[in-house]
Amino acid sequence: MDISSTIILGIVSGLISGYLIYLFSVFLRKIALPWYKRIVYSGIDLSGTWIVESEKYDRRDITLEIKQSAGDINAISTHVLRKPGSNESTEKIRTYILNGSLKDRFLILTGRANDPTRIGALTFLFEVVGDGKIFKGVGSAYSSSMMLIDSRPFSARRIGESKTPNE
Predict the structure, then answer these.
(1) Helix or strand or coil: residue 140?
(2) Cβ neighbours of residue 36 under 8 Å, at least 6 residues apart?
(3) What would you measure as the largest C-alpha separation in the chain, in angstroms?
(4) Which ranges of the chain does DSSP label H, i.e. alpha helix?
(5) Are 76 and 96 a contacting pair, CB within 8 Å?
(6) What is the mean pLDDT of residues 115-130?
(7) Deepest of 13, 121, 147, 157, by most Cβ within 10 A of its Cβ?
């Protein structure tokens, strides 16, 4: 073999081995580690639909669709605005994509508006209360109508659960 074929063979084998190492790392990050985390995780499972309520924020119906994989949380927050002073909804519906984590009873969620033509950011910090059917905390969001960042206390309960813990 001459020098040029040795160099080409070295480059090709280097590319192939680099690609195989990349595929192995993707397998570890995307399949093996999440599978292992699900097996080892022993905390509460918050997956499901939750109703978010606030005494100070009565013009909006908020639901959270939570999907949990070990301590990692992905959620969709849907906000349906109501007309002031009534239960009748308007046509304004806002959807936020949230990501976060659950550790030591604390649920942290942050996200942005799903609609790329809108400005919106939302953050929740909740504490899981009692037996895990309710969580309470604070939410902060950018209000495009008031053009400011607003923060309010919130509580959330699974659909079908009572409004007070441990009932």
Answers:
(1) strand
(2) none
(3) 86
(4) 3-27, 33-40
(5) yes
(6) 91
(7) 157
